[in-house]
Amino acid sequence: xxxxxxxxxxxxxxxxxxxxxLGLYVDRADYIAMSSAMLAKMGKQVSRSxxxxxxxxxxxxxxxxxxxxxxITGRDAIAKNLEMQGRYWPQNLYLGSVDEENLPLMAGKxxxxxxxxxxxxxxxxxxxxxxxxxxxxxxxxxxxxxxx
Length: 148
Prior knowledge:
Radius of gyration: 17 Å
Strand content: 5-15%
Number of strands: 4
Distance between the termini: 38 Å
Largest sheet: 4 strands, mixed
Number of helices: 6
Helix content: 40-55%
Shape: elongated
């Protein structure tokens, strides 16, 4: 069973990260719970040898500091998404669409002929804004530093 990162990332650490992100995307608490259970079993090992557990450590960081859920909807969603992702924000999870979308976090956010960016944490979104600069200001201070 692969637990430590060696020349390849630990398959279990990758799966724990995928479960966490997928749980956020599709609003499945059971996926997030599975990820948390995997992470809980690794906690002591990670603290003893972080260099060999970097994927586990990154997931711990996401859980401790939170994941910014960035929802971008509207006619210019792709361009705004590319502009925002042009900066380094490892803690951001992006959802976007030029049309109405049925993902839980995107429900009710599409406005015809407008492009809005929603900065959300734990499924709670701040007011919609129209520019990447305004959205960045809505992110937590530590997250803003990453994107400079």
